Recover the amino acids of this structure.
């Protein structure tokens, strides 16, 4: 063993130990490991930051933006309420999410399948009052399992097929992987359904200031229009759209104020006073096609403006204190609308236009993106953590879905690499305003991308130092004395152990020839050994950095590095126990 190999193993082992210790944030640990590797000469200085240009960084960052666009579109709410209105059991929700992700992953890029379904998981979590961490890691693992079912499901399967063609003259076909891969998917998803609790319930580690100051008791006024789906229906139907997070304080019919009984039938032009979080109010108002109170804001040429809604606090110096929105005629004089008001310790029961505003009230102010900052300054209003909210903004329901579909088609047909397709999709979300520019960089989880960029050159030192070939040599000495099932298990376990430090395709390129040499030396057929390499390389359940699906859920799920082996290690053991006899059954070695 050379000095460079010893140093490479030492840096990686030390880094993994600190990750498992879990006393420091993962991006700081990764950056320290990178600096140590450069200082020891394991990573050349000129390649120190090569990881930040790696495709994986682009894919993960872009997928987060795409997922945010899909979530913001509102299409997820509509799908859940239409197809699964009564799906409340945690296991039933998890089964739906994991099965859909697994099936999609068999035919499209697994990170794309995961990005499609992550917003659904967040909706289930919100409706059930459960942390998203319960859903996200099992979904990521299901995406990896689903990719094992077909030739195009994951990169290791494609590379193994090419290796078999080069070495035997015959490639694996599209569904040669299905018997074993399908069995592993069924067994793995079943395991995840019953043992998801092995991962502690987590909350997002990098909560923003906006989340810390979220207001829970906004009062808003919405009008039932002729196009509303709620006209002629009881008030209870309207409140269902808020999933228990919105209450009605009154219904105003002309000059008559009515109590908000659940069986009250709504009519056109009724004004409903609602109270709840701004996000929940937005779901109710957009889902029922209600119209918020206030004048429609247009530019001087009659063209609809780029409208945004911002939370702001009325300061002591504000000209709004002691006045009403009607009295100030804000929509005419300033071109803004007050959409909601929150008053600490008090329930607002008046029309927003007649409410006398006080110092300390928090309001949602709607206006043009270009002019609203100036209005806030003129009225001495304090933006609440610079937060932009969705209440009163237009949803573009179909655009995010179309953008994601185009990206997936482009990758499936080979028109564009995955990194380029997802980057273009993220750009499309910004260009078509599916994700506002102010929220674009909030969607990208910075610490995750920094961790990836720092870890890639450190992990690659295992290959550049010759450490991977050294492991292969040790492996060869052991495997020759084992029976067929033992050699297959050893190949698979080694691939599982190596793939967090090499990308899964590189793992196949390193381990594939070794597997074939075992088979040739022992007079065995190579198919089961090649399949074992593909399954091991595609079953990276032990770390958040070996596969982009695991990385994608780390930030939103609030997971720690040590959480992955808690669920991933028993799953990996199960995969080995099931796949070895299955491989020998479907792909006999003699």
């Amino acid at each position: 063993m050379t000095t460079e190999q010893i140093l490479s193993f030492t840096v990686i082992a030390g880094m993994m130990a600190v990750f498992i210790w879990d006393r420091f944030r993962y991006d700081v640990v990764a950056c320290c490991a990178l600096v140590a590797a450069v200082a020891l000469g394991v990573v050349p200085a000129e390649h120190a930051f090569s990881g930040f240009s790696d495709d994986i960084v682009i894919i993960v960052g872009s997928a987060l933006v795409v997922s945010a666009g899909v979530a913001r579109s509102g299409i997820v709410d509509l799908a859940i309420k239409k197809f699964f209105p009564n799906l409340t059991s945690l296991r039933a929700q998890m089964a739906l999410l994991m099965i859909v992700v697994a099936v999609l992953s068999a035919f499209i890029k697994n990170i794309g399948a995961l990005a499609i379904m992550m917003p659904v998981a967040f909706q289930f979590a919100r409706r059930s009052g459960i942390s998203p961490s319960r859903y996200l890691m099992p979904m990521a693992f299901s995406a990896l399992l689903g990719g094992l079912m077909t030739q195009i499901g994951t990169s290791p399967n494609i590379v193994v097929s090419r290796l078999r063609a080069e070495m035997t003259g015959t490639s694996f076909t599209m569904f040669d992987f299905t018997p074993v891969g399908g069995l592993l998917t069924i067994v793995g998803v079943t395991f995840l359904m019953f043992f998801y609790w092995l991962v502690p319930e987590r909350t997002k580690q990098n909560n923003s200031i906006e989340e810390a100051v979220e207001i829970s008791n906004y009062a808003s006024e919405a009008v039932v229009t002729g196009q509303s789906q709620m006209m002629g229906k009881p008030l209870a139907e309207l409140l269902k759209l808020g999933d228990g997070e919105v209450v009605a304080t009154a219904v105003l019919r002309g000059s008559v104020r009515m109590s908000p009984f659940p069986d009250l039938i709504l009519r056109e032009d009724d004004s409903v006073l609602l109270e709840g979080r701004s996000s929940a109010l937005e779901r109710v108002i957009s889902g029922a096609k209600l119209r918020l109170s206030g004048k429609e804001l247009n530019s001087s040429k009659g063209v609809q403006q780029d409208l945004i809604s911002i939370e702001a606090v009325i300061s002591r110096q504000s000209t709004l204190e002691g006045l009403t929105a009607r009295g100030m005629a804000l929509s005419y004089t300033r071109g803004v609308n007050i959409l909601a008001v929150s008053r600490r310790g008090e329930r607002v029961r008046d029309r927003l236009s007649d409410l006398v505003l006080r110092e300390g009230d928090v309001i949602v102010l709607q206006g043009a993106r270009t002019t609203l900052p100036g209005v806030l300054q003129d009225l001495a209003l304090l933006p609440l953590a610079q937060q932009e909210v969705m209440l009163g903004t237009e949803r573009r329901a179909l655009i995010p879905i179309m953008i994601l579909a185009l990206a997936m088609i482009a990758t499936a047909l080979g028109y564009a690499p995955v990194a380029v397709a997802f980057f273009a999709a993220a750009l499309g979300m910004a260009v078509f305003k599916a994700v506002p520019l102010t929220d674009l960089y909030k969607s990208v989880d910075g610490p995750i991308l920094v961790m990836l960029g720092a870890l890639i050159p450190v992990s690659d030192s295992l290959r550049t130092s010759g450490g991977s070939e050294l492991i292969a040599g040790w492996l060869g000495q052991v495997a020759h004395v084992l029976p067929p099932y033992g050699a297959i298990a050893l190949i698979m376990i080694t691939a599982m152990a190596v793939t967090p430090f090499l990308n899964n395709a590189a793992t196949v390129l390193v381990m594939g020839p070794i597997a074939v040499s075992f088979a040739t030396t022992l007079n065995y057929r190579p198919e089961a050994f090649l399949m074992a390499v593909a399954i091991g390389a595609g079953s990276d359940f032990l770390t958040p950095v070996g596969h982009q699906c695991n990385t994608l859920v780390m930030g939103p799920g609030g997971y720690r590095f040590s959480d992955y082996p808690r669920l991933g290690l028993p799953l990996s053991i199960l995969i080995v126990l099931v796949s070895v006899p299955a491989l020998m059954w479907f792909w006999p070695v003699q």
